[in-house]
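Provenance and format

Records in this collection were gathered into a single text stream. Each protein contributes a sequence line and a token line. The two records reproduced below are adjacent in the stream.
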Amino acid sequence: MISAAIAAFLLTVPGSEPAKAVESRPSVSGSSPATPHTELSLAVVERLERLSKMSSEERAQALADLPPERRARIEKGLEQLDALSPQQREAWFNRFRRFDVLPQKKKEDVRKVVKELSTLPLARRQALRDELETYRHMPVWAREARMKTADFHSKFNAEEREILHDAALLMHEPAAK
């Protein structure tokens, strides 16, 4: 299922909102950001969105017939969604919808970058996420120039530079303000 890592990475897809505390983002599958991810269908996300808008009584009734393990996983994801502000929750669902409409090749490229990113230690993942957030506001030529600087090469090792390069290729020009 879609995880916090994919949701966070989607901040690099045009039109998505910046992610602040990635580890606090819902992981519908209950997996950690460092585990491989499988695709979550739009229909499942739409059901989660409906469940997230239900009262606790309505939710309990809707989940009553599920196997206990599945129900627990869904309830955990819903608790994480409930912990978000309404704006953050809506942004999370919107990021998924944007991911869902990407061409299959781009989805695979996003998953590849997310998988590579997830193999890094937490502090390094955060450093790369911070760099990617900076790229969101830069035109392509500025990103490319940034990646050629001595500062960039001193901050990131060869593997990290490759991940950042691959991620930058997936980004578009920032929207004009």
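Adjacent record:
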Amino acid sequence: MNLKILVFTFFPFISFFSNEIYSQPLTSNDNISLEGKIIDQILIDELLNAPLNTIRSMDDFTGQLIIIEFWATWCAPCIKNIPHLNDLYVKFKDKGVNFLSITYEGSVIVNRFLKRKPINGWVGLDLDKSFIDQLSIYEYPTTIIINKKGEILRELKPNELTAGLIQTYLDSEISNSK
């Protein structure tokens, strides 16, 4: 009985600090900027929530922009931002914006998680972290905005991603393609 009291007393303390713990970089990438980098191919092992026979090239994505979020099922800030990203997906899915959430975790863990907390858009599994490492992603969550040419336009946190920001980039890409 004393053990139960200790666990319940200690849990709020852990929960209070969990956002700070999980949002810290795994290693430092302070001097690395992704903006302007070109991505030729999305290097991931498996796609969930995607059409059959999707081969993960830039041509698989229709529209003008790709929003990629790097996340994990254990990451409290990642989980907190899922509803926000789902709302943006609903708002922009028919306006030329693609959403892809990439994790290094396996399909059993991710599918179990998605049953409890669905993610709209595609979910990519980068099991060997080759794509994550190629982009030097060391902090979760991290979001990048990519244009149709594969150029990274912006790197940010998912809570900084707003409908206005997406619309600004979308309008810019549409006007540049004319």
